[in-house]
Amino acid sequence: MFKNWGLKKQFATVFIVLITLPTLLFGCIIYFQTTNTFKQQVEDNTMDRIEVNEQTLQSIIYSIENISSFMIYDDNFRSFFTMSAEERKHADYSQIVKGIKGYFTFQLMSFDYIDSITLKAKDGDTLEFGNTILGTEKWLEEEAAAKKGAIHWSNSYSVSTSWSRVKNVSSLKRVINDINQINEPIGMVTIRLDSTKLFKMIEKKFNAQPGTYFVISNTGDVILHENPSLVGKPYPNREIVQFSNETRKRVIHYNEDGVTYLGVKKKIEGTDWYAAVVVNQSKVADGLYSIRSLFLLSFIVLIMLGIIAFIGFYFSNIKRITELTQQTRLLESQNFNARVQVSSQDEIGILGMRFNHLAISIQQYINREYKLKIKQKESELKALQSQIDPHFLYNTLDMIRWTARLENAMETGQLIERLSKNFRMNLSMGKMWVQIEEELMFVQNYLELQKSRMGRRLHYSIYYDDNVKGFYIIKQLLQPLVENSIQHGFKNLRGQGKIQIRCYQNDDEIWVDVIDNGDGFPRNLTENETGFALKNLTERLNLLFGRGFGMERLDSEIGTWIRLKIPKVIVDHEKNLGDVNDL
């Protein structure tokens, strides 16, 4: 049933069934899949974020701890921690301090989040590097001393600098023990990290991602946060504080003021800290709503574009096809004036041009065949009016040939046989076309008869390519040219007349050259002087093959050079040879 519909109905059905409905269906599926995938992606991204940040923070912690461990083994640090007040007056002390200063200067320049470093020797002497901190950190010293050389990380706290600035820092505080007497303390180190710079260092890869990253202690105090006012204070949401102390849970969903949040945490090894990320899932949903609105808008736009494309396709293609169908019906009803208006060079335009060319070719072919048939019938009628019964003449010649043989007049018999063959080929059962090989044989018989009459005054040669002998040619096409050479070209010739015939293939054409050494054609010959036969030959070729084919005269130093250009013709043997199937 679908095959019997018109193109407009088919295209509308295809547009609705295969474009509109699938677009709507797949759009809904994609929307729901996108919603779930987007939510899962947010959770996965949050987990990745906290993993990467935890690794970054852990790397920073390890590097700071390594700085403190280096002091246990380095001679300069050990010398500083163990020197007495008297020993510090010697020049060696200056070199020791210079070495320590160079080491810390490198660390401060390499890691901008290191705010300051304080070294305190056994006898109470101190060295300060970085920002100068005002006030004491006695509570921090007591916590570090209680760990007896183990690393102690403090929560964030506020300090004042000599520049009258207040900032939040987290500190590594550690007692440095003697390497030779591991339980003997020889000094203390404090390395302070700027909380704001440390946070930026950790979060620089994820600034654009949704959610808030922060670090809190096991007591709920904020260590790092994008809001400096929260640093060093208890985190305002107690659910997050409780969640941070639950060791097994890594993900939490909770509501606050009617808003759903996603929370993810991870323990920072070597400290009492937890890294956490909190994401507002309502904002994520807002993003999904925007996706849904975008999808709806995209669907409407696609439908509108589809309708515009349908209308454009109809006028640019379907309408032209229907017009071509209408003109084809006109041509089918034998109206050969049917034409299609061609407005483009696409496939339909090319099809229209070929249709127009076909209609013109059919019209020209009918006119040509009609004129050719009329001309052929006129020739046959004239032949019948001016000649005796051809079959009677052929049979009579055959009887004379056998009589000559019985009387041993062999040469006479051969001449009669050649004349009989020519006459028989001339009849050819009324056929219009003969093979090139037959036509050349006919011309050869004709030249042999003329040679019997003229003797040594005539010499001829015939050459042809083997691959052209099977193609067809109009019957008796060459005889008028040969006859013209003998009757007119050799008329005033002193000496032997020579005729050369060459037949060969040139691309998709067959060329036949007829060359003689006669007087040639004067350029001012009138139509009557060229002979009726040549005029008739030219008209036949023009009627049959059209432009580009026919007879042309080439320049020759001696005599005449005529060239016939004809297409390669194949004729169906089962049909009358007067009907050409392929040109």
From TrEMBL:
Give this protein's Gene Ontology molecular function annotations: phosphorelay sensor kinase activity
State the UniProt keywords alphabetically. Answer: Cell membrane, Kinase, Membrane, Phosphoprotein, Transferase, Transmembrane, Transmembrane helix
Give the stretches traversing the membrane: 12-32, 294-315
Is Transmembrane found in the keyword set? yes
UniProt-listed PROSITE patterns? HAMP, PROKAR_LIPOPROTEIN
Cell compartments where the protein resides: Cell membrane
Specify the protein name: Histidine kinase
What cellular-component terms does GO give this entry? plasma membrane
* Source domain of life: Bacteria
Domain HAMP intervals: 318-367
Which InterPro entries does the protein's record reference?
Bact_2-comp_sensor_kinase, dCache_1, HAMP_dom, HATPase_C_sf, HATPase_dom, Sig_transdc_His_kin_internal
Does this entry carry the keyword Protease? no
* Topology in the lipid bilayer: Multi-pass membrane protein
